[in-house]
Design a protein that fits this description.
The chain is mainly α. 62% of the residues lie in helices and 1% in strands. The protein starts with 7 loop residues before the first helix and ends in a 10-residue tail after the last strand. It comes from Streptomyces albus.
């Protein structure tokens, strides 16, 4: 394990968090978030999701108009059920979004333009997950394949959201006809909705990451993210009901835009943080040395070395490109974790494969001799 050079208090805290998983794992997740600059990934995802909302809604409304042309009342109920998924925005755009009315070339251009605009969120999600999982650049999909994969992803999400839409519609219709669902049935509907959202998140994490991710390493994070998303929806509904209601037109417009951006940002934060937790657990990137982000005068732990090696090899653009990482510091005392065996230092040895590589193209972290290193 790594050791911090500093005050006795810092050393004791460092030793404690490295011995206890419940303390070391969350700290490693926080360090991984800052190493990946994950908050910038969240901002990127927020921006493209914000731009994708209206094309997606436009496509949805146009689809309703095509398949339910003879039942405008059912169209209205379905649209209102979808808009409830956007608690900050939904009440403000009811009745203000309309399907395409053109035919022929104009209709095709409108649909294709909206479809391309809706791919922004899928592209941003792919980039963020590849960054978090340290997938080398040469292993990522080309621009055409990634966009095709994004369209398949949108179709998958649409299928999953249809289930939650039917649940929401059933609940609203029961209330319309004066049927009291009862707290037990409402709770059951919420549990089913959370389960569906967890399945969607699990599919998103595994499908959009250009790296094989075992499902068993993602289900817990997907379930936790789905629960957090449900709480975020409740919070957004409260904001729309108690903060925006009765506001002036000018303040209300700013409140809608800022509230929607904040709501999307929190959702993107949940999405990225859950992925970071999964990476740390899967690749055992803990325990980290306490003072690593603040000073070079520390002994890097095996998890530190593994993480820093993955950050370097992520930037390999070609499969025949080799990146070698060396740490001019003695390795930490004791053997490395079981899933990260000691390197063979013989001349014919192959370098280790960091997270996100296939074992043949990236270079592992060497323990090069020479250079200054902290004192004991």
């Amino acid at each position: 394990m790594g050791r911090a050079k500093g005050t006795g208090t810092a050393r004791r805290i460092d030793a404690f968090q490295q011995r206890h998983r419940w303390a070391g794992l969350p700290l490693a997740v926080v360090y991984k978030i800052f190493d990946d600059q994950a908050l910038y990934l969240v901002a990127l995802l927020t921006y493209y999701t914000f731009l994708s909302i209206f094309p997606v809604l436009l496509l949805f409304v146009s689809g309703l108009g095509a398949f339910l042309e003879g039942d405008p009342e059912l169209q209205r109920r379905l649209l209102n059920s979808v808009l409830r998924e956007f608690p900050v925005l939904g009440d403000q755009i009811q009745g203000r979004i309309h399907p395409f009315r053109s035919n022929g070339v104009a209709l095709a251009v409108g649909v294709l333009g909206s479809l391309y605009g809706s791919l922004g969120a899928a592209q941003a999600a792919q980039y963020s997950l590849n960054k978090v999982w340290a997938v080398p650049r040469h292993q990522r999909h080309n621009p055409f394949l990634s966009r095709f994969k994004g369209m398949l992803f949108l179709m998958t999400v649409a299928g999953g959201l249809s289930v939650t839409l039917l649940l929401s519609l059933a609940a609203s219709e029961a209330e319309t006809f004066g049927t009291d669902l009862g707290s037990g049935l409402r709770s059951a509907i919420t549990v089913v909705a959370v389960g569906v959202n967890a399945g969607l998140l699990l599919a998103t994490y595994t499908f959009l990451t250009h790296h094989q991710v075992p499902l068993r390493h993602m289900w817990a994070e997907s379930l936790g993210a789905a629960c957090a998303w449900q709480g975020l929806q409740w919070g957004g509904s409260y904001y729309a009901t108690h903060v925006l209601r009765g506001a002036s037109a000018t303040y209300g417009m700013f409140g809608i835009v800022l509230g929607l951006l904040g709501w999307i940002y929190l959702g993107a934060l949940i999405f990225v943080v859950a992925a970071e937790v999964s990476v740390v657990r899967t690749h055992r990137l803990w325990p980290r040395t306490l003072l690593t982000p603040f000073t070079d005068r520390v002994w890097l732990s095996w998890a530190d070395r593994k993480a820093y090696t993955s950050y370097a090899t992520t930037e390999t653009f070609k499969s025949f490109e080799t990146v070698t990482v060396e740490f001019h510091q003695r390795p930490p005392p004791g053997p490395p974790p079981d899933d990260d065996p000691p390197r063979d230092t013989s001349p014919d040895a192959q370098p280790d494969s960091p997270p996100g590589t296939d074992g043949g193209d990236g270079a592992g972290g060497g323990d090069g001799a020479g250079g200054e290193h902290p004192e004991n």
